[in-house]
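Lab meeting, action items carried over

1. Structure of the two-component assembly. Owner: GW. Status: complete.
Input record:
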Amino acid sequence: MNELLEQVRQGQIRAIARLITQVENSPTAAEQAIQALYPHTGQAHVVGVTGSPGAGKSTVVNALVKTLRQQDVRVGIIAVDPTSPFTGGALLGDRVRMRDLSGDPGVYIRSMASRGSLGGLARATASVIKVLDAAGFDYVLVETVGAGQAEVDIANAAHTTIVIEAPGMGDEIQSIKAGILEIADILVVNKADRPGADRTVRSLKMMLHLGPVGGTRQSGRISSLATTSPNGAAWNIPVLETVATEEKGMGALAEMLAQHMAHLRQSGDWLKREKERSWREVEGLLQQRFMAQFQASVPLELRDGLLTAVAERKVDPYTAVHQLLEKTESKRKG
Amino acid sequence: MDQTKPRILIAKPGLDGHDRGAKVVARALRDAGMEVIYTGLRQTPEMVVEAALQEDADAIGLSILSGAHMPLVQRIVELLAANQMTDVPLFLGGIIPNEDVPVLKALGVTGIFGPGASMDDIIAFIWDAVGGAPLAGDVA
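Predicted assembly:
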């Protein structure tokens, strides 16, 4: 493992690819790798790219990375596509739109299946981000599965979240609903050459004006960490227009990424977000660990028997949980 | 809980635009519970091998109907060797004349599936090539 980690730190593609597979497949491997690599992380600018299926996420990533590469930065891309809940298989097709990036030694693309996670990312995505961060990539772009209204995990994983919309996807009411639009640091209306693009831009801007001062992302989802920025600087969420297939608007988007990073650093939001992100991550790991402990301590037959009783309406779900927890507790004490 | 899934790269090298076969196979492998990385049309050998390297693919499937399978496969095999990836099984679909089959196998292609090949055979071949199908109940 140590040799592999050393090669990852040197940026060797084969080692990076191997380690990501291990991290994806085995929580134990992930734990070992992250324990060793964590001190070397925190350098990369992690950018989330999300939006509904077909809005143009992969195409925007392709064009944006071409633009970023003009500044001599190395870019790692994680492209998540959904796993079938029925067969466990997945068709990972984001590379199809990123063919311009092939042959560029400064770009690494990795497709990832969501493997049953529902928040738009895979369980291992946070660890894979750290692998690429430790491997020295300046930017790590994470493209989520085509997201609807509730897949907002990316906001906890990324420093900057780009939400991509396309014209003709719904009226103004869609834009004031809770969910994905709330996590945007940068809003992009892609396919801006299509009819109706002006209307989409207008309704997004209207949505931003209905919110707090000029439109700032609702930060501080954990109340104890919700502090106002020391200098009180607010980030005004921009609405950018792009035509990714023609690489239009990419310079402005790249520039906005840099501005957002500068804002995070100057305002103190950087640390705030890192704290939030860390808490979410620790919380997630705790849940997994508790669940595993629970599953190990309660015999399968007992669980099965209780579930049958619930299914037959002999025991209600709440009582079942009480009984299961009692078993876990008594096991721990005994 | 460990969760290992075969990662299969399906690529369409060469200049013909007939990607239906590649898509049908990609879909079938997905339904068999594998993770399929689909790269799309008109891939150069360099693009195929780069993708396999970055994706840590367990096997590479090529669909070639242009008649250019000999030079394409030759180049891909060379590039795989240059990247110490000779252990990655290579399989082929499309229009491959019978007389080319032994030459391709000698180059290192482990499976060749022409028109009429059964999907079950292809799936069984890949499970075998990547070290066996999961036990029943292991899928999720």
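2. GW to write a short summary for the group page. Key points so far: Chain B has one domain: 7-129. The longest helix of chain B spans residues 69-82.
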